[in-house]
Amino acid sequence: xxxxxxxxxxxxxxxxxxxxxxxxxxxxxxxxxxxxxxxxxxxxxxxxxxxxxxxxxxxxxxxxxxxxxxxxxxxxxxxxxxxxxxxxxxxxxxxxxxxxxxxxxxxxxxxxxxxxxxxxxxxxxxxxxxxxxxxxxxxxxxxxxxxxxxxxxxxxxxxxxxxxxxxxxxxxxxxxx
Length: 177
Known about the structure:
Layout: H1 2-20, H2 24-40, H3 42-49, H4 55-65, H5 71-82, H6 89-103, E1 106-113, H7 119-130, E2 136-143, E3 150-155, E4 158-163, H8 164-176
Parallel strand pairs: 1-2
Antiparallel strand pairs: 1-3, 3-4
């Protein structure tokens, strides 16, 4: 929790800097590439979390690996590393993207269905549910056959459960009590 709060503070500072310098899209692109490197490389994750490697060495390695990054991004990574918080960089990037969505008035969530949705059905669900939220709704899809049918939508701390499995469970409880 503390690390998430710190990551949010760092991400907020980076967001404000990128807005002030007009580099929002560039920083977004850099952080997306950084997240991709973190996601695909166990060695890089181990490197970030290593207390043995000195911060000046880490900064030099950033410059070799993260080529074509904006000077603001590299300066930010250097600052975070000098503060001994480089293990937070992946979470800072994630929080930056959350703040960016909020800035762009996008509400993102997850829709879980028993089978893949076609585009028309997904848009119909979004139209139906979007009136409950302020902003443009963006849903990532996940398939879980155990739902049998229907869907579950999770957005922040809200959940809309319209799954067949949930309805069957509810019916079973009503019949057995």
